[in-house]
Design goal:
Beta-prop_PDH, 6-blade_b-propeller_TolB-like, mainly beta, single chain, five-stranded antiparallel beta sheet, Quinoprot_gluc/sorb_DH_b-prop, transmembrane, Sorbosone dehydrogenase family protein
């Protein structure tokens, strides 16, 4: 006797449910096995210092299908806790209780702007396997929430090194804001998809109205953050745009106008690509000795724990650093499917200074006149190394100082520690240093996006550093005046004789 139609339907539903639960269980088991395998990925052989400097050690590439995972679980800072400042420096809290503060800019009146931001909705890690894995781990690393899309103005109203006032500036046009500069009565902000500006005067505490768009930018992608830097004369704006993937995983056409730095000329109202082949350029600043633009760059992943060293380098007009085909001048990445441009190897530049493999440098600020960091930090650049997510042991999670000579040349020495202690002894993260900037009083400010803090670093008793005078550009001597020339025919010249 056959069952009723209702009973058959119930049995079919139960059978389907049972199969679905089995499939879900298998997926969970596979995910757990994957994570267990990932966390047991190969450990690095070289120290971070060994993959740093003008001539970093480059390990043999070991291509990975699935990246090694090494995440520092965020635990925050307890009251009274702070990073460890190197000998001779002290660190205090300038501001706390912030929501994922990333970049900073300091206004002429001393107000500090910090962008509370994160990746745009719907595109958190880009494409490819590495993007998929990175996306899964954003929440664990403290970077998986929605973007706050606000700029906070911090004001030290009493001059004691603490922000006594804060104003949260909101505007619907803020869309994963990152780089910020102030110029001639306007605040320029780099969203993930374009550069916009508002009328803004120092002392103002809100962003009102609809902004003016300066230029569009390719949106989102694995590297969504767009930074800004203003030339010392204020006439040119530099915009960094990272790649959409690790190594053009979705094809080279998807990387159009990415992995580059652009220059906008305020006088000519024109834009051009200034440099290319830089996987993810972030912090930018101008060398005070030479006036050159420098940048920190996050290099590629999934070639092993010791490849490829991230770097700090000068960026002259037309510079090409090889991504995705080449790294560190002469090393070809054979994983890249797109054909390499002809003669590329002949003009790819070698980076000036390695910062270590997978350390993720973000913030960059050269020491300048007026800073109160002491004579040990008179010539060089401060770099915030945000920290690795795909290396064992963990690397970065600190602020370092790269020494330069008094002619603006980087020195062959390992990075000197400035702030450490962002990691606990068992590998959890109190915070992650993100950006560096100088306050008006000369203190070094360090944003900590995971900890929600802006740290203030000084050398007690240090006098403000003297101003650095830029080395003048070499101007060739004027040509000597030329006398009058007279051309006279030579009748004896063989040129006048007919050919026999």
């Amino acid at each position: 006797m056959q069952g009723s139609p209702g009973a058959l339907t119930v049995r079919a539903i139960m059978s389907t449910l049972k199969k679905s639960l089995i499939a879900i269980g298998l997926l969970v088991i596979a995910a757990v096995a994957f994570l267990a395998w990932s966390f047991r990925g190969p450990a690095g052989v070289y120290t971070t210092d060994e993959t740093s400097g003008p001539h970093p050690k480059l390990a043999e590439p070991s291509a990975q299908t699935i990246p090694t995972v090494g995440i520092a679980k965020p635990v925050g800072w307890q009251p009274g806790e702070a990073p460890q400042a190197t000998q001779g420096l002290v660190v205090t809290r300038f501001a706390e209780g912030l929501d994922h503060p990333r970049t900073m800019t300091v206004l002429p009146n001393g107000d500090v702007l910090t962008a509370q931001t994160n990746a745009p909705a719907g595109d958190r890690a880009g494409g490819g396997v590495v993007g998929f894995v990175a996306g899964l781990l954003f929440n664990q690393a403290g970077a998986g929430g929605p973007s706050p899309n606000t700029i906070v103005l911090l004001r030290d109203g009493v001059g004691k090194g603490t922000a006594t006032q804060r104003f949260v500036m909101e505007n619907p046009a803020l869309d994963s804001p990152f780089g910020m500069v102030w110029r001639a009565g306007r605040l320029y902000v780099a969203n993930h998809n374009g550069v916009v500006s508002w009328p803004f005067e120092p002392g103002q505490t809100s962003l009102r109205g609809t902004p003016t768009k300066l230029m569009d930018l390719p949106p989102a992608g694995m590297h969504w953050a767009r930074n800004l830097a203003l030339s010392p004369d204020g006439n040119r704006l530099y915009i960094s745009v990272g790649s959409a993937s690790n190594i053009a995983d979705d094809g080279i056409e998807a990387e159009r106008d990415r992995a580059s730095i652009f220059e906008y000329d305020f006088v000519k109202h024109s834009v051009r690509q200034f440099a290319g082949g830089m996987r993810n350029p972030n912090g930018m600043d101008f060398n005070p000795h030479t006036g050159e633009l420098w940048a920190v760059v996050n290099e590629r992943d999934m070639l092993g724990p010791d490849l490829v060293p991230d770097y700090l380098s000068n960026v002259p007009l037309g510079a090409q650093y090889g991504w995705p085909w080449v790294y560190w001048k002469k090393n070809i990445d054979w994983r890249v499917q797109a054909p390499m441009p002809e003669y590329l190897m002949e003009y790819v530049r070698k980076p000036e200074y390695g910062l270590g493999a997978h350390v993720a440098p973000l913030g960059l600020a050269f020491a300048r006149g007026g800073n109160i960091m002491g004579t040990r930090f008179a010539d060089g650049a401060f770099v915030a190394r945000h920290g690795s997510w795909n290396r064992r042991p963990l690397a970065g999670y600190d602020v370092v100082f790269v020494r330069f000579d008094d002619h603006g040349n980087v020195l062959p020495a390992p990075p000197a520690p400035v702030l450490t202690g962002f990691l606990t002894k068992d590998g959890k993260a109190h915070g992650r240093p993100t950006w560096v900037a100088f306050a008006k009083d000369g203190a070094l400010l360090v944003s900590d996006d995971v900890g929600g803090v802006i740290w203030r670093v000084t050398a007690p008793g240090a006098q403000p550093a003297p101003a650095i005078v830029q080395i003048p550009d070499h101007v060739p001597p004027p040509q000597p005046p030329m006398g009058k020339m007279r051309i006279q025919e030579n009748p004896d010249s063989v040129l006048n004789k007919p050919k026999g």
